């Protein structure tokens, strides 16, 4: 298989991942069964999947009822993920870096050391104004909200607020111009330096489609063009096409089958 040969011939591996990887790993925002199990009150209101809650205006108590349960499930589950573990084993001892649009922390939780997540991380939160460039760990506010969660109505009584100004807060993820990316900027600089290193580079892009192509898909194509000898393997069930000017391989398959 060309993918295996290219991996054997590489010295460095950049894993570039979109939402398709986490969906394949079991964190699917369109999973209706899991939604009904976790969010019975919202399900009774006519909602059926997590993706519907992205950007949906809700009263603060209901908003944090949803997000505290969601983040606890998708970000703070301590169990290793088998799919991410297989990917880590595939990369092996090669020098590697991760670029991902996913905000669930699954790479760091499954043995990857160098990760840049420019879209943020559910593990942090920020002021919605924002009144400061500072961000904070979100686990304490998630746990405090969950302690007051009422599954019958989907609400919490402990709505978090900004430690600085007392105003509304949200998770430190890119949902609009209020996003504060400062915490992740050093990782981005380290990735740029890493890309200038020695050895043949293989970019393995997984599950990055056209919902936000400017975050993963298009930048990956540009960097492969700019790094001499670089190759691209694009694993994507629905959008595996690769530009004809790149040394690239299109793998039109589910990543679970490829990594198996």
From TrEMBL:
The keyword Iron does not apply. Signal peptide: none annotated. Keywords: Metal-binding, NAD, Transferase, Zinc. Residues 1-260 form the Deacetylase sirtuin-type domain. This is Deacetylase sirtuin-type domain-containing protein. Transmembrane segments: none annotated. It comes from the Bacteria. Zn(2+) binds at residues 127, 131, 162, 165. Gene3D superfamilies: SIR2/SIRT2 'Small Domain, TPP-binding domain. InterPro entries: DHS-like_NAD/FAD-binding_dom, Sirtuin_cat_small_dom_sf, Ssirtuin_cat_dom. It comes from Lentzea miocenica.
